[in-house]
Design goal:
Blueprint lengths: L11 H10 L18 H4 L7 E4 L2 H14 L8 H8 L2 H12 L5 E4 H6 L1 H10 L16 H5 L3 H11 L15 H12 L3 H19 L13
Parallel strand pairs: 1-2
């Protein structure tokens, strides 16, 4: 099993093209070509099951901003880096790459995982994994354990490390965005326009993926 953020292995030329496209230039997707530094022989290895995770951009983008700030990188680490780290274009490119080679990725929405133990078990069954082995609760990391971690890793994983299981209260379906968005101006200040721009850029891709996401009812034996 391998896990990665798609942009971290992307071809620099594709990265630059994406950055420029956010400024109004045309984006030239690589089509069915492998845009990553990961060998196609690994990506397309027999029995490979790609899983693409998505989250409502109103949560994903704002979370990315906070993490970058916690890492000591001011203002979302600058517009170019913020574009790279919040775009769902990477998942779209991966989806197109795999489907062009006859492989349909599993699209998993964070909301489903956070609000439904049944969904987590159904996903395990879909992957031929024992659903009884699914971790639905865990001990929160101790202060000693957290102090031993690299500061940047801690900043990016703090909510997970301090949790004791999926928190349904953090799911988009359970958040009053009208209220939350009123608080953004105080939180993001002069960067609010950039945050809203990245949300607007990501939302069409998120909605596109929503229609393709894995649902528990798709798995006949998912309980």
């Amino acid at each position: 099993m391998a896990h990665d953020h798609p942009f971290s292995s992307a071809d620099p030329a594709v990265v630059l093209d994406l950055i420029h496209s956010a400024g109004g230039r045309a984006f030239h997707p690589p089509g069915d070509k492998n845009f990553t530094s990961i060998p196609a022989s690994l990506l397309l290895h027999e029995n490979t099951v790609p899983i693409l995770t998505i989250r409502d951009p109103r949560l994903a983008v704002t979370s990315a901003y906070r993490v970058l700030i916690d890492m000591g990188l001011p203002h979302g680490s600058g517009r170019p880096n913020f574009i790279i780290s919040t775009s769902l274009q990477w998942q779209r490119l991966l989806y197109d790459f795999f489907t062009s080679h006859g492989i349909t990725p599993l699209v998993v929405d964070a909301d489903d995982l956070m609000t439904s133990p049944r969904y987590a078990r159904a996903l395990c069954e879909k992957l031929d994994m024992d659903p009884k082995q699914a971790y639905l609760s865990w001990p929160a990391a101790t202060e000693e354990e957290k102090s031993a971690l690299h500061p940047m890793f801690l900043a990016s994983q703090r909510n997970l490390l301090e949790s004791e299981g999926p928190n349904s209260g953090r799911a988009a379906k359970n958040i009053d965005f009208e209220k939350v968005e009123q608080e953004w101006e105080d939180e993001f200040g002069e960067d609010l326009a950039m945050v809203k721009e990245m949300i607007a850029l990501a939302m069409p891709h998120y909605e596109w993926f929503q229609a393709k996401r894995f649902r528990a009812e798709q798995n006949d034996s998912g309980q």
